[in-house]
Design a protein that fits this description.
Structural class: alpha+beta
Radius of gyration: 15 Å
CATH superfamily: YbaK/aminoacyl-tRNA synthetase-associated domain
CATH class: Alpha Beta
Number of domains: 1
Shape: globular
Strand content: 25-35%
Number of strands: 10
Length: 164
Amino acid sequence: MTEASLDPLVQRALLSNDVAYEVLPCDPDLADTAAFCAHYGFAIEQAANTIVVASRKAAPPKYAACVVLGSTRLDVNKKVSELLAVKRLSFADGETTMNLTGMMSGGVTAFGIGDLPIYVDSAVMEQARVVMGGGNRSSKLLLNPNELTKLPNVVVVEGLAKPK
């Protein structure tokens, strides 16, 4: 699989931020975390999922992208609510995620997200390498999590996620 299989927006973000990465091919039917890890032999702790969250009642609405390990659960109601200074948040639906990022579920990645705040759980940074979406369901990125800090809107947050 060539780099051309990455979403072009993601590829531009990787190149413009001088990110070191590998591209992994992915069967689109196996793009969701559990299926991908089981089929391709990755530990769930290596999967760094990017989840878009949305405020429920704030006007204008507030959004953020959160990167957490597949073995953890995003603390959306406490930690992320505190970071965005809103009372109630929920996971953005597929349509909202696509409108904000240009990416579909199973392929969302922090790279190419634009001007949304990106919160990365500190546990992600403890991994030697993580696998993330490639901006589509047919590719994944394999990289050192420190590469995430090359993005201008990334903040590493202690306790962003809790063990499942």
